[in-house]
Amino acid sequence: NRQYHLAKRPTGEPDMDTFELVEADVPEPDANEVLVKTLYLSVDPYMRGRMRDAESYAEPWDVGEPMQAGVVGEVVASNHAAFGEGDVVVGNLDWAEYTAADGGELTAIDPDVAPVSTALGVVGMPGRTAYFGLLDVAGPKPGDTVVVSGAAGAVGSVVGQLAREAGCRVVGFAGSDTKTEWLTDELGFDAAINYKTTDDLSAALADAAPDGVDVYFDNVGGPITDAVFNQLNVDARVAVCGQISQYNAIELPTGPRKLGTLIQKRASVEGFLVSDFQPRFEEATTRLAGWVADGTIQYRETVTEGFENAPDAFLGLFEGENIGKQLVKVAER
Ligand code: NDP
């Protein structure tokens, strides 16, 4: 049973020395526990925060202990009445090939409804983040211009499609031409900007959003966010979902710099956490699954093969190596 432990807390960018591959015994499930064989493991940007020894919404990981991740797995032994051998479940488990978990912490998924991997992406936590962050926090209205950064990622790609369905003009920022083409040619974005090859982000945004920006869904922060703030409209709403461009920073740049715009435009900025919407997870999951089934929402996954490659997959998030949801495939069902 291979596991990844946090070897040490990184300063700046994490690297392979951050992780330690450990061979452990397959655990025996206790009363009410279920032994889960990992099929897919999710790597997510927020994990960078758990490597830090600082108070946050997710507990810091302990050095020398297994890290945790969203996992889709198969039940191989069960001491819990709700689960039997062969069931497919999703839960927050260890970075491991096998984890014993309390049955109360697991959710069953129906493999006949959608590929099981989607429980970690478009109909899982990232999809729900897009759903609540856009529809509840930002509140798009028909005719609004919605801008999303990190637009070709797990969360951003769903945000853009939900905004399109809400009757908005949708503009995305992403880090490659393959990504921007996916957004405009397949997902129905009105425009997409490759921020890595564009010198003047403000000019590019002014072209793409000639009527200004009513909603900004921010996944990344940094220079993209500065460019968007310059072009907020009166009564604009900014939903702050993530700031991945800052997660590896050793010292944060001075800021925020663009708050004057908020006065002039009477705009509001609201951070949110998907976990606060827990009582409504079922609603979001059901609606997202329906939209995926009827083709309203399309999705992509970048699947890294092999448990041992999970650190690479995680590090790739900061290089934009993923298109859509980044997953690690650990075993077959
Ligand atoms: P993604 O699938 O979007 O993967 C991360 C992407 O971020 C990369 O593909 C890369 O795409 C982009 N990126 C990396 N570095 C930079 C940079 N310096 N500047 C701009 N873009 C960069 O991840 P998720 O969809 O899982 O998460 C998106 C964001 O949402 C993250 O910030 C995450 O922390 C946040 N989040 C927040 C939640 C909440 O409850 N508030 C819940 C879930 C996620 P590119 O090629 O475009 O650079």
Automatic annotation (TrEMBL):
Alphabetical list of PANTHER family matching this protein: PROSTAGLANDIN REDUCTASE, PROSTAGLANDIN REDUCTASE 1
Highest taxon in the source lineage: Archaea
Region (Disordered): 1-15
Domain Enoyl reductase (ER): 14-328
UniProt keyword terms in alphabetical order: Oxidoreductase
InterPro entries on file: ADH-like_C (IPR013149), ADH_N_2 (IPR041694), ER (IPR020843), GroES-like_sf (IPR011032), MDR_fam (IPR045010), NAD(P)-bd_dom_sf (IPR036291)
A molecular function (GO) term: oxidoreductase activity, acting on the CH-CH group of donors, NAD or NADP as acceptor
Oxidoreductase keyword on record: yes
UniProt name for this protein: Enoyl reductase (ER) domain-containing protein
Keyword Signal in annotation: no
